[in-house]
Design brief:
The protein is α+β, with helices and mostly antiparallel strands. The protein folds into three domains: about 1-240, Aldehyde Ferredoxin Oxidoreductase,  A, domain 1 (4-Layer Sandwich), CATH 3.60.9.10; about 275-480, Aldehyde Ferredoxin Oxidoreductase Protein, subunit A, domain 2 (Orthogonal Bundle), CATH 1.10.569; about 490-555 and about 590-620 and about 685-714, Aldehyde Ferredoxin Oxidoreductase Protein, subunit A, domain 3, CATH 1.10.599.10. It has a seven-stranded mixed β-sheet with strand order 1-9-8-13-10-11-12. The chain has a six-stranded mixed β-sheet with strand order 3-2-7-4-5-6. The protein has a two-stranded antiparallel sheet with strand order 14-15. A hairpin with a 4-residue loop joins strand 8 (about 140-145) and strand 9 (about 150-155). Helix 11 runs parallel beside helix 13 (about 395-410).
Length: about 725
């Protein structure tokens, strides 16, 4: 079908495909779109031992590509993609992930994203353990990695559209020589929104055999799509190979099959009785979060809303189509990656088209829905689709829109300043128009698309808003908008968001139930231990190419009798078996944590190298800690008054609401500072959040260039 398009090849690199052996191909692909350099680079034993793959390879390659002064829009910044050694396994569910890393446009330090779709595994099958994209092209280019042909090309395809739902289909149709080829082609794309905002996402495709169409999964946090389009890369395409059970060439296939079959049985037996993710995916969380006052409503002011029933799991289950299973990688029996087919768009440039909408996931429902006061499922689906095709992170868009809506209702913004957008909470039409402005690169969308942190500065400088109030209500840390869980009543989750390397994303630690609901970690030392173990454990999934849902969203009944049920020890043992079976490297559960600890500490030093990573960067806005406004306090007055009496030792009877808020704030902010001290001590860091030289040596990452950065700040 390639005769249908004109392919202008700007550079071509023939290569001998390196076979996969024990999860690795032992080479990475480097591409510079400024000068059209394409090169193969070796994967060393040191890389595999210390950085494992996935996020670890991303960080190591990026570290060696940039300077201390590199910023997100400099040519030497890279978008790096690596699948990890276990990505592409079909025997164990949830093993098709890849990880993207880059210097973020919003945080100015390293961001990393764990993403599904078929690109990562097919990149490996085409012969590569990682892909580095560097430089800035002088025109829009598309990179094609053709495994069967053994060549990599940089091409100009002037006929290609830009927005993802058009471009992905166009490229797949154009490059598939036969209908079967569509199953082995995967694309990385973004859209016009990524060109005009700092919160651009990347869409990783998979060809859905049941739908006979393309679907997408997103790498979104921190703006990797913005970097991608700034480099004038329109797409990366990999043409791989049919997937087999032996595609990753495991060291011990029988061992892998045995542990995989055990987990597959658990999913089949327990998911229907527990979360029913095969039926409804992650939106099962909406009702649970609302019940525990944890669902973000109106820019994280409140944790519950009676209209949540309009956007809870039953609603989405009724809309999800194509039946079961509905996964994003082969062999995943959890199959939680649902979609809505034939959704007719009501607004925007594609009005009237019927499209596939992937998801929505829980985070998207919370961000585009409850946090903005929007409880219309059709509006959420429309916002979800346009975020994806424009290449915009749904979490950041929903979070920043909720921030803008609160600023509008507080009088900081008005119709004149928003260009006519009536941005009250619940106005779905205004939210959609704001999104379309981002896609077009015009109007108030250009301001909002810079993200919450930048808007705080703009609103203070240009509109005279109170900077302290803006800081309090803008729910971001390090410049990244927070994901969709209320952390006011969980000190550990406040740390789980703010003490992260990349910003407040729940993929490092989700401790609300352990801390707030079950009171399993009552002391600072308990919380610090949890904020050591769980970020390290979750980091490990990103080193290897796993989805975390198979760890703790399906739980064997015997788990409640284990010594540490929050860790799901039976599943931890599974991952020990899978990693050993694939790589031939015999490990223990303690080894897995040590692997992650080395990479995690390396990333923290990397942040310091780029000018971030210190204690001041780990402080959350007060909206994530306690009530900012009278409205918030008085909505939960009984709870807060009780806390003043029992925890603070203050009798609230004769105090005004403002005085109560001040006393509670002093107490909560003081406790957060104590938590920081405990966590830094447990992690082996200085009180200013810098890994010590002793910790670097202990982890075996005391490389001269790493030590030099740490010494600079001691």
């Amino acid at each position: 079908m390639t005769d249908k398009i004109t392919r202008h090849v700007l550079a071509e690199f023939p290569y001998q495909r390196s076979p996969v052996e024990r999860g690795y191909t032992n080479q990475t692909l480097y591409i510079n779109v400024s000068d059209y350099t394409i090169a193969a680079r070796p994967v060393t034993d040191f890389m595999k031992e210390k950085f494992i793959g996935g996020r670890g390879f991303d960080l190591w390659l990026l570290w060696n590509a940039v300077k201390d002064t590199t910023r997100w829009n400099d040519p030497e910044n890279e978008v790096v993609i690596s699948p990890g050694p276990c990505s592409g396994v079909t025997q164990y569910p949830g093993s098709g992930k890849s990880i993207v890393a880059t210097i973020s446009p919003t945080t100015h330090v390293v961001t990393d994203c764990n993403v599904g779709g078929h690109f990562g595994p097919q990149l490996k099958f085409a012969g590569w353990d990682a892909l580095e994209l560097q430089g800035i092209a002088d025109r829009d280019v598309i990179v094609v990695i053709d495994g069967p042909a053994g060549k990599v090309t940089i091409e100009e395809l002037p006929e290609a559209p830009t927005d993802t739902h058009l471009l992905g289909a166009w490229l797949t149709e154009a490059l598939a020589e036969t209908p079967e080829d569509r199953y082995v082609i995967s694309t990385v794309t973004t859209g016009t929104g990524a060109e005009h905002t700092l919160i651009g996402c990347l869409n990783f495709s998979l060809f859905d055999r049941k739908r006979n169409d393309i679907r997408y999964k997103q790498a979104a946090r921190g703006g990797p799509g913005t970097v991608f389009r700034h480099k004038r890369i329109k797409a990366v395409v990999v043409i791989g190979f049919p997937v087999k059970g032996t595609s990753v060439a495991p060291a011990d296939p029988e061992r892998l099959a045995r542990v995989g079959a055990k987990m597959q049985r658990e999913v089949h037996e327990y998911d229907p009785k527990q979360n029913r993710m095969r039926n409804r995916g992650t939106p099962y969380l909406v009702h649970i979060m609302n019940a525990y006052d944890l669902l973000p409503v109106h820019n994280f002011k409140f944790g519950a809303h009676p209209d949540h029933v309009k956007i809870m799991a039953d609603v989405w289950e009724a809309r999800f189509t194509q039946g079961l299973p509905d996964g994003c990688w082969y062999g995943c029996t959890l199959a939680c990656a649902h979609a809505v087919d034939g959704f007719e768009l009501r607004t925007g440039p594609y009005q009237g088209q019927r499209v596939i909408v992937d998801g929505p996931e829980y985070e998207t429902v919370g961000a585009l829905g409850s946090d903005c006061g929007i409880f219309d499922p059709d509006a959420i689906l429309e916002l979800n689709f346009y975020c994806d095709t424009y290449g915009i992170d749904t979490i950041s868009f929903g979070n920043l829109t909720a921030f803008v809506m609160e600023c509008y209702e507080a009088g900081i913004l008005n119709l004149e300043r928003t260009g006519g957008l009536d941005l009250h909470f619940g106005n779905a039409a205004a939210a959609l128009e704001l999104l379309h402005q981002m896609g077009r690169g015009e109007g108030f969308g250009l301001i909002a698309g810079q993200g919450v942190r930048r808007m705080k500065q703009i609103f203070a400088e240009e509109y005279g808003a109170d900077p302290a109030f803006l800081w309090d209500i803008g729910v971001e840390v390090k410049g990244m908008e927070q994901s969709m869980y209320m952390s006011k009543e969980s000190l550990a989750q406040q740390g789980g968001y703010a003490l992260t390397n990349k910003g407040p994303q729940h993929d490092e630690a989700w401790l609300i139930f352990m801390d707030q609901v079950n009171n399993q970690i009552p002391t600072f030392e308990d919380k610090a231990e949890a904020l050591h173990y769980f970020p390290m454990w979750r980091t490990w999934f990103g080193l290897c190419g796993f989805c975390k849902l198979l760890w703790n969203d399906v739980i064997p009944p015997s788990n409640k009798y284990s010594q540490e049920p929050a860790k799901i020890p039976e599943h931890v043992a599974n991952y020990v078996e899978v990693f050993s079976a694939v790589t031939g490297r015999e490990v223990t559960k303690e080894d897995l944590i040590r692997m992650s600890e080395a990479v995690y500490n390396f990333q923290r030093v990397f942040n310091w190298r780029l000018g971030g990573g210190s204690r001041k960067d780990d402080i959350p806005p007060y909206r994530a800690v306690g009530p900012v406004t009278k409205e918030e306090y008085e909505s939960r007055q009984e709870r807060y008054d009780k806390q003043l009496r029992e925890l603070v030792g203050v009798d609230p009877t004769s105090l005004t609401t403002e005085e109560k808020m001040a006393a509670l704030r002093q107490y909560r902010e003081g406790r957060y500072q104590q938590l920081m001290d405990a966590v830094y001590k447990r992690r082996g860091w200085t009180p200013n959040a810098l890994p010590t030289l002793e910790k670097l040596h202990e982890l075996g990452i005391d490389l001269p260039e790493v030590v030099e950065v740490v010494k600079r700040y001691l």
